[in-house]
Amino acid sequence: MAEVSQEQSASRERTMLVAMLLSAPGPIATGIPAFVSLSATQIADFLRRTAELVALVVAWWVYRRLRRDDGGRARIESAANTTVAGAMLCSGVAMLAVGVARLFAYEASGSVLIGLIIAALGLLTNSWFWLRYRRMNREQYESVVAGQQTLYRAKASVDLCVVIALTAVTVAPTHPATRYIDAGGAVIVACYLFFSGWRMLRKSRAPQAPVGEDVPAPRTPIL
């Protein structure tokens, strides 16, 4: 497989930087409306965006470092994946607790309109980055970029769930089904974090061959 050119590498690093900067205001923009409205889905969205921002910062730092120095690639990627996985798993636990608690103690309070607008904009932005990373991988595959493609596909999917849940809360906040939709949105986001964190943690702990070496094939016993 041909290596990524310097121009492609620089373009991909800039894309990661732009994605990180666009996601940076996310925790604040979603956190304030979440604690005003006390919507389980919005609180879950705030925790999710915070964990994802950590993942984006680490991914950008890893790609930037490996672009300049390829030494210790396996060790750096493993440490980065473990850090991100830990953040996602912790957020998933907190989010699941919020969703279950709101299921038994739901009370419509405050407006979720701001959170709905932010989630809708996030859906559009994350869908665009997902398609861009997919196009990059079709041009030339890189594991870090492939990870970003998977992350943004999941981000867009979760944003869609958040938009649906917050739309229900906005349109019919006192409807009996709204509490289940609101809590269900939090549980769906929690499951996403659990799955992503578990998969990343398993990948970071998988044995990897040093750069330039092949993984030895298992020996067949001689009968």
Q: At the first level of CATH, what is the class? A: Mainly Alpha
Low-confidence spans: 209-223
Assign an overall shape.
Answer: elongated
Residue fraction in strands: under 5%
How many separate domains?
1
- How many beta-strand runs? 0
Helix share of residues? over 70%
Q: Could you say what the CATH topology is called?
A: Alpha-lytic protease prodomain-like
- Please give the alpha-carbon distance between the first and last residues: 38 Å
Task: Report the average pLDDT across residues.
Answer: 76
Characterize the main sheet.
none
How many H/I helical runs?
7
Q: Roughly how many Å is the radius of gyration?
A: 20 Å
N-to-C SSE string, H for helix and E for strand = HHHHHHH
Structural class computed from helices and strand pairing: mainly alpha
CATH architecture: Up-down Bundle
Give a description of the structure:
The protein is mainly alpha-helical. It has one domain: Alpha-lytic protease prodomain-like. Helix content is 78%, strand content 0%. Helix 3 packs antiparallel against helix 4 (73-104), helix 4 runs antiparallel to helix 7 and helix 6 runs antiparallel to helix 7 (178-205).
In summary, what is this structure?
This protein is mainly alpha-helical and 223 residues long. The protein is 78% helix and 0% strand. The chain starts with 5 loop residues before the first helix and ends in an 18-residue tail after the last helix.
Could you give the topology of this structure?
Layout: H1 6-23, H2 26-37, H3 40-68, H4 73-104, H5 113-139, H6 143-171, H7 178-205
Notable characteristics:
223 residues; Alpha-lytic protease prodomain-like; mainly alpha; disordered C terminus
